[in-house]
């Protein structure tokens, strides 16, 4: 093939993006170098700054460059409600439904003993401590998958022992799907239909 | 919404990639920051190096960080054949067909008077000079679109006046398509079926 080393390097580097195969990577490379070199440099800078400066919110563990994310820092959220989700993308999905005004806790995944992911890896102790800070209801919004259900069940038991109200979002969310891809109105129904567990 | 400024900046910067909408950009951002920060830094470096160092081959005008691209620098190409294409991606498409062993000339587009793109913008003088360097046949492989056909016709006339043999790739390539997306076997047929014009 006739790629020069720097073109080859860029095509390969673009493959780190989810959903980008060899053909798309080649197309992106030519597009950037021929039509949008400024966009390419802006992207390089945005990538570097984000990797170097974005960490985790001290309170909810979502992605944030400030010690507290905008949601946790806001005075307008209901601090009696805590919604537990698997990923930062799930926080956004729930926010986009517009149906929730409480705070969040991001597990960063779900229990998966075979992969060595236990309660410690998903921050269960931090969640229990967080729930003691005036939280009246914890809404478990892990994915409606087998692993998400098992994780919700495990966390729910511990919270109940601690005397905290616990609910699970209703199964308006389609079973086997991923929360991140559920539309806002389905999430609204799921939140409204939540039941104590 | 609850993106922090650096997340927002990265999501917007990713939109410079062709085919990447807001939802994909968000997905890419979370993926990179949560799962592949090294990939993100590698991509940032590859983008910067490519933009800063990749220019045009002095001879064929394709993308290259060296003064001569690997094809023009090769001793194994047939210098009597010159294939004229619109873009660097088209060079790769023809190379991938495996049916051609000559050299190339990249116009960087096609004639488009309404957009102010005339013979000078697509390097017609450079092409005519290049064709005088021992070239026996110029194969016009501009896109099989109205503009590509018009460009091929215009260039073909000038080359014939100069006494150079000229051919057009056969219409095995589907009309209205873009050369970059044609499969190798179709391109092979199109090259074999080329006719003098
Ligand atoms: Zn937070
Ligand atoms: Zn060249």
TrEMBL record, chains A, B:
GO terms for molecular function: DNA binding; zinc ion binding. Residues 80-174 form the Toprim domain. May play a role in DNA repair. It seems to be involved in an RecBC-independent recombinational process of DNA repair. It may act with RecF and RecO. The keyword DNA repair applies. One of its GO terms (biological process) is DNA recombination. The keyword Lipid biosynthesis does not apply. It comes from the Bacteria. The gene is recR. It comes from Thioalbus denitrificans. A zinc finger (C4-type) spans 57-72. Keywords: DNA damage, DNA recombination, DNA repair, Metal-binding, Zinc, Zinc-finger. This is Recombination protein RecR. SUPFAM superfamilies: Recombination protein RecR (SSF111304). Pfam families: RecR_C (PF21175), RecR_HhH (PF21176), RecR_ZnF (PF02132), Toprim_4 (PF13662).
């Amino acid at each position: 093939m006739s790629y020069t080393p720097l073109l080859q390097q860029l095509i390969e580097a673009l493959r780190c993006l989810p959903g980008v195969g060899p053909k798309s990577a080649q197309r992106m490379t030519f597009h950037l170098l021929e039509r949008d070199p400024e966009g390419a440099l802006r992207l390089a800078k945005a990538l570097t700054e984000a990797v170097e400066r974005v960490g985790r919110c001290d309170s909810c563990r979502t992605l944030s460059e400030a010690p507290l994310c905008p949601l946790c820092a806001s005075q307008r959220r209901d601090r009696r409600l805590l919604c537990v989700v698997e990923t930062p993308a799930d926080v956004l999905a729930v926010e986009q439904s517009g149906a929730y005004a409480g705070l969040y806790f991001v597990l960063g995944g779900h229990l998966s003993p075979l992969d060595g992911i236990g309660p410690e890896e998903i921050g269960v102790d931090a969640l229990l401590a967080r729930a003691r800070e005036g939280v009246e209801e914890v809404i478990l919004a892990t994915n409606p998958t087998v692993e998400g259900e098992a994780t919700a069940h495990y966390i729910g038991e511990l919270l109940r022992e601690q005397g905290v109200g616990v609910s699970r979002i209703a199964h308006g969310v389609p079973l086997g799907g991923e929360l991140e891809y559920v539309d806002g109105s389905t999430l609204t129904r799921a939140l409204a239909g939540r039941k104590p567990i």
